Amino acid sequence: MSIMHFPRLRRPDAAAGSDAGGPGHVRTAFVLGGGGNLGAIQVGMLRAVIERGILPDLVVGCSVGAINAAGVAADPSEAGITHLRDIWLSLDRDIILPAGPLSRIKLLNPRSPSLQTNDGLRRLLERCLPWQTFEEWPRPFQVVATSLATGAERWFSSGSVVAPILASTALPAIFPPVAIDGELLIDGAVVNNVPISRAARLGARRVVVFHVGNFQRPRPQPKRPLDVLLQSFSIARNARFLREAADEPPDGVELVVLPGVDPGRLRYDDFGHSRRLVELGYASAARWLDDVAALSPTPAPALSAH
Question: Fewer C-beta neighbours within 10 Å, C or N terminus of the chain?
Fold first, then answer.
């Protein structure tokens, strides 16, 4: 069976015991990968999981998953996910991507490192995020970006929130690199789109993966250079996820990869289908959780330590 078709559910042996959270406590991490406008699918998945009492002790996110990570870490409740859904339903192309043709001249423009600015996304984050620093969040969350100079991962869990999320979502060539502490950073998906290993390294005993690219269909024939660029990036960023999901998790770690959803043909800049995508994500995850996974609920998460 292909990992892209079927969710994976691997449980630790009962003898593995509990972690520092106390007897019987499962320290649960939510891992939210990238996927642009497909991030709406994660919102439906999150609702299905949280409705069943599975709550995060910590959240790690990449690219659009960094935005959703901030949302669920702020309020992992049905009300919180409803709020996150309402934000998604309010989006349109012009909020994220200013109007204007993506011309060949822009691709070759020596005066700009990107086709678009990130001004719209910055305004959205500043308006919608409830706090300005990681330390203010009631539940710990981390986001990843990629160093444009070294190719190394750079993780953020303290200080200002907006710039790291802008860096994590800086899709190469589409959005500009973001400078933090003198280092230019781009989309975290370049090196770690679905950071499973990060969650395990942070001490998670249960890792719940919300990967919106976890489906398989024939890839379309590209018609423009930009299509080739985006499709190539999609292939590259999925490679690490496939390796980590196929490997045996560390001893005592339960890996849960929710089933993927085929969104149909959808342009990367089309935000007009968010309601449908939320519903697809919810229906798929709810059905699988009820029929296959039968995951036990988690205790209310701690509201401290990063």
Answer: N
Cβ-contact 142, 168 below 8 angstroms: no
Burial of 285 (0-12, 13-18, 19+ CB in 10 A): buried
Judged by average pLDDT, the poorest of 125-134, 152-161, 226-235, 270-279 is 226-235
- At residue 229, the 3 state secondary structure works out as helix
* Chain-centroid distance, C-alpha 49: 15
Q: Indicate the SS3 state at residue 264.
A: coil
Please write the tens of the pLDDT for every residue from 160-185.
999 999 999 998 878 999 999 999 99
Q: Which helix (H) or strand (E) holds 30?
A: strand 28-32
The pTM is what?
A: 0.82
Structure tokens at 219: 């890839």
Following DSSP, what letter does each residue of 153-217 receive, concatenated?
EEEE-SSBSHHHHHHHT--TTTS--EEETTEEEEETHHHHSS-HHHHHHTT-SEEEEE-TT----
